[in-house]
Amino acid sequence: MTTADEAIEGKSIRLLIVDDQPLIRRGLSMMLATEPGIEVVGQAADGVQAVAQALALAPDVVVMDLQMPHASGVVATRAITARLPSTQVVVLTTYDDDELVFEAIRAGARAYLLKDASEAEVLDTIRCVHRGESRLSPSIARKVMEHLRTVGFPPAAGSDDAPREDRAPADEPAGPRALRPFEDPLNSKEVRILDLLAQGMSNKQIAATVFLAEGTVKNYVSRIMEKLHARSRLELALRAVSRRG
């Protein structure tokens, strides 16, 4: 079904835009609101507002900046994904610092884009995460993969080695689990699908490559996530690279 069809049937993707810069926040809202199948339901200027707005509006997707007053985008992402599992977070920021990237992913972000991304890339990413997929800017993906190949995954959020300012308050729900070792063996078909997923392929692209129905690939991905105790496709991709390391 096309995005136009979804818009006609009233199934628009409901967005919350979070950025502490008014010009960027309003500009994003105006740009995205004109697209078919997209509805901007709210805006927030900091992490505290982001959590409050998300709980009140239950958006499908939150477009989240990271460096903001009162509470960072990482803290807000962690709180939102813990309390609203069906709400997906797309990080859109100017920062590509290694620690911020990893903390955002661990907090539950499904995508990480830099603000030099094109309008088409932002739109495509929003639609991808709404379908349950994940996305990284190419430069971010290279940093992540290189880091995993050389030193492995950094300390889990909330550990003694994690940045103190981004730890969840004691009364906050726990964030996503740190990556665990591989516990359940994958069969050859699952290994093949995991490798293709790590290359950034969608379910449709994987289906065409391995000659399976798209629904069958989706079932495989769910089974692999369960076996590897991963909570997102992005975490699966990171695991695949670490596994090959």
Structure summary, number of beta strands: 6
Distance from first to last alpha carbon: 38 Å
Low-confidence stretches: 1-8, 151-183
- CATH topology-level name of the largest domain: Rossmann fold
Radius of gyration, rounded?
18 Å
Q: Can you give the helix content as a percent range?
A: 40-55%
Please, what is the average pLDDT? Answer: 77
Beta-strand level of the residues, as a percent range? Answer: 5-15%
Keywords:
Rossmann fold, 245 residues, six-stranded parallel β-sheet, alpha/beta, 6 strands, Arc Repressor Mutant, subunit A
Q: Describe it for me?
A:
The chain is α/β, with parallel strands linked by helices. The chain has helices spanning 3-8, 22-33, 47-57, 73-83, 98-107, 119-130, 138-151, 188-198, 203-210, 214-228, 233-244; strands at 13-18, 38-44, 61-64, 88-93, 111-114, 135-136. It folds into two domains: 3-148, 3-Layer(aba) Sandwich (Rossmann fold); 180-229, Winged helix-like DNA-binding domain superfamily/Winged helix DNA-binding domain (Arc Repressor Mutant, subunit A), CATH 1.10.10. Helices cover 50% and strands 12% of the residues. It has a six-stranded parallel beta sheet, sandwiched between helices. The radius of gyration is 18 Å and the shape is globular. The N and C termini lie far apart (38 Å).
